Amino acid sequence: MTDMKTCFKRVDYDLSGLLHYIDIGDIGLPDIQRPFVWTNAKVRDLFDSMYRGFPVGYLLFWENGQANGAKQIGVGEKQHAVSSRLIVDGQQRLTSLYAVFRGRKIMDDDYRERGIEIAFRPRDGKFDVADAAIRRDPEWIPNISTLWASGKSSYLIVKEFLQSLKEKAALTDEDEEKISHNLDRLFDLQKYPFTALEIAPTVEEEQVADIFVRINSEGVKLNQADFILTLLSVFWDEGRHALEMFSRASRHPASPDDDPSPYNHFIEPDPDQLLRVAVALGFGRGRLKSVYQVLRGKDLVTGEFSTERRESQFKVLQDAQEHVLNLTNWHQFLSSLVGAGFRSAEMISSQNALLYAYAFYLIGRIKYETPEHVLQKTIGRWFFASSLTGRYTGSPETIMDGDLNRINHLNGSEDFVRTLDEIISNQLTNDFWQITLPAALESSSARSPELFAYVAAQNRLGARVLFSHKSVPEMLDPALKAKKKALERHHLFPRAWLEKQGVDDLKIINQIANFAYLEWPENIDIGDEPPSGYVFRIQARFSPEEWGKMRRMHALPDDWERMEYSEFLTARRKLMADIIRQGFETLK
Fold first, then answer.
1. In Å, what is the CA distance from 288 to each residue of 66, 267, 392?
2. Residue 62: beta bridge partners?
3. Which residues of 381-402 are buried (b: 16+ CB within 10 A; e: fewer)?
4. 193-199 and 59-63 beta bridge pairing
5. I need a surface site. Which of 135, 450, 534, 574 has the fewest CB within 10 A?
6. Between vectors from CA 423 to CA 418 and to CA 424, what angle results, nearest 5°?
7. Of 553, 350, 572, which is closest to residue 458 (Cα–Cα)?
C-alpha cells in the first residue's frame, strides 16, 4: 500500500495564480467535468466568505503523469497542450470563480448555458444575485465580472463608480472613503490565498477516490465513470462533448423544423450511462475499472504505459461511441421496447436494464449483423425478461460482465439470439412463473417491475381498459398530453370500504392485485362502492363475450366481486402472473 505521507504534497496559490494556470492549460478545468450544480446564491455566498477573509476549503489536484501529446482539457487553444494537474475536488468552487472573474458562461445540470451575475454594493460590502431591481439601482455593481474584464486599474474603477454615484446623490468624505475601501477589497480578491493538496501521478484512481471522500465527506464519491470521463476530457474532448450534447438534446423535444433528435419518452441519459454502453460495445466489458486502465495506455500484464496503446484503445472507444450516439440505432432500439409493450419512462423500473439492452441491441446489430426484424423481438424479449426479474438491480456491472462474456465470441446472428434466449430461459422457468412471480406480486410498490411487466403484457395482448371499449395501448400513449391522466390506478376493493371491514394496513389495501387502471371518469363514478355493488351496474354495458374477455385480460377470477378480500388477492396474483407469461410468450 502506498505510504500516505508520500502520495501528496501541499501547494499554496493565490487566486490570480490559479486562474492564470487554468488560462494557460496547466490546471485542467474542463467546461463540463461535471455539470455545474451550484445555484447563483451559493456562488454569492462563496464571494461573501472570501470577501470577509473566511476560509473556503482545500482544493484537491491530481498530477497528470501521462502528459505527453494529449489533448488539453476544455475548449480553445492553450499555451500548455496538456494539463499537469487535474481537479479532483474543488470543481464547483473553481468553476464559479473562473466564470465570474473571466465572465464565462457555465453549463448547468440540465445542460443549458447560463451566466453567473453576482452583484456588489460598495457602500456596505453586500453581495447579492443580480435581479431587475438591483440592475436599476446605482448603488450596486450588478455584475462584478465587469470589474476584472474591463482591464482597468482599481484606481480607475473606484473613480468612475464614485463619479456615477455622485450624479445621483451627494456623498460625504466618509462615504467616499468607505466605498473606495470596499471596492479595493473586492478588487483584491484576486490575491485570496488557496491551499491545494496535489496527489502524485503514481497514485491509483481508487486511492484518489478514497482521499476525495476522506477530505470532503459531503462530496459525491467518484466512480470509475467519473475517471473515464475525465480521461475523455484530457485525451478526446470532442467525444466528451458529443456525450454531453446527446444528453442535453435528449431532454428537450425537437420542433418540427429541427434536425432529428435523441429525445424520447423512455430515458434522459447522462454521459456516464452512454459511456457504459460504449464500453460494453467496444470492449465487451461491464466493469469499468479495467477499461480505465486500458484507456490510460496501461499493459495489464506488465503494468507499463504506452502512448501508442492508449491511442489504439481510444480508437476502439471512438468507434463504439459513434454507434451508441447514432440516432437511427438509438430510435430503432427504443422501438423494440415499444414492441415489447413498454410505452414510456413511467413503465421503466430499471435504467440499467434499458441501457444494457441497448448495448445488446448494438452488439447484435453491428457485431453479429442480426436482421432487424429478428433483433427487434430478441431485444424486446431480453428487456422484458431482465426488467421483470430485476437482473441488473444488484451488482449490475458484475452481472453484465458475465452476460457479455457469454456473447463476446459467438459464431454469428443465430448463435447470438440463441445465447440470449438461453440466459432468459434459465431464469424464466416454470417455477418462476408459477411460484416466484405470484409471490413477487404480493407487493404494494407503485413502481414494481412485476406491475410494469403486467401492463406491458396487456399491451402485447391488446387488452381493453377495464370497464371501457378503449384499448390499454392507446390510453397509455405518452404523446397524449392532458391536464388529467387518461388512466388512473383504482382500488378494485375501495380503501374506505376495506377500512370499514377492519382492513386498515395500507400494505394490504394497496396490494398490486387490488389495483386496475381505469379511465378517470369511471374511477370517479365508482367512488367507495364495493365491487359487489358497482360490478353488476357496469357489466350491463357489455355483451357476455366482451365481459368474459375483459375479465380474463385483467386477471379477475370468476365471481371475484363476491370473494373475500384475501382470497381475491391470492387468486388474482396467480392470474396476473399468467397474463405476464402470455404477454411475454407473444415475443417469441
1. 19, 22, 15
2. 86, 199
3. bbbbbbbbbbbbeeebbebbbe
4. parallel
5. 135
6. 95
7. 553
pLDDT of residue 475: 74
Q: In this structure, how many other beta carbons lie within 10 angstroms of the beta carbon of residue 13?
A: 17
Buried b (16+ CB within 10 A) or exposed e, 32-59: bbbbbebebeebbebbbebbeeeeeeeb
Total number of residues shown for the chain: 588
Separation CA 555–CA 578 (nearest Å): 8
Residue 88 has, within 13 A of its CA and on its CB side, a CA count of 34
Cell of 509: 389495501
Cell of 54: 473566511
- H or E stretch at 135: helix 132-136
Nearest Cα residue to 336 out of 388, 375, 392, 389: 375
Please give the Cα distance from 522 to 319 (Å, whole number).
Answer: 53
Cα–Cα distance for residue pair 107/80, rounded to 1 Å = 24
DSSP annotation of 7 reads: S
- What are the residues facing 28 on neighbouring strands? 86
User: Measuring CA to CA, how many Å separate 498 from each of 444, 494, 503, 567?
Assistant: 15, 6, 5, 14
Cell numbers 464559479 correspond to: 96
Rounded distance, CA 170 to CA 574, Å?
Answer: 85
Q: What angle do CA 462, 488, 504 make, to 5 degrees?
A: 120
Which residues make Cβ contacts (< 8 Å) with residue 23, sequence separation at least 6? 78, 102
Q: Which of 60-69, 160-169, 276-285 has the highest mean pLDDT?
A: 276-285
Tell me if 304 sits within 8 A of 298, measured CB to CB.
yes
Residue with cell 428537450: 252
Query: How does DSSP assign 500-545, residue by residue?
Result: HTT---HHHHT-GGGEEEEEHHHHHHHTT--HHHHHHHHHTTS-HH
**Cβ-contact 467, 529 below 8 angstroms:** no
Q: What is the pLDDT of residues 199-242, one digit of tens each?
A: 888 777 656 656 665 655 455 555 677 778 777 876 787 898 89
Rounded CA gap, 531 and 3, in Å?
71
What cell does 298 get?
A: 496501461
Lowest mean pLDDT across 24-28, 29-33, 314-318: 29-33
Can you tell me the distance from the alpha carbon of 31 to that of 237, in angstroms, rounded to the nearest whole number?
Answer: 10
Which residues, at least 6 apart from 549, have a Cβ–Cβ distance to it below 8 Å?
Answer: 464
Q: What is the DSSP string of 381-399?
A: HHHHHHHHHTTTTSSHHHH
pLDDT > 50? residue 76: no
Q: Which three cell numbers stand for residue 59?
A: 482544493
d(C-alpha 236, C-alpha 127), whole Å: 39
**Three cell numbers at 197?**
493538496
Residue with cell 424479449: 381
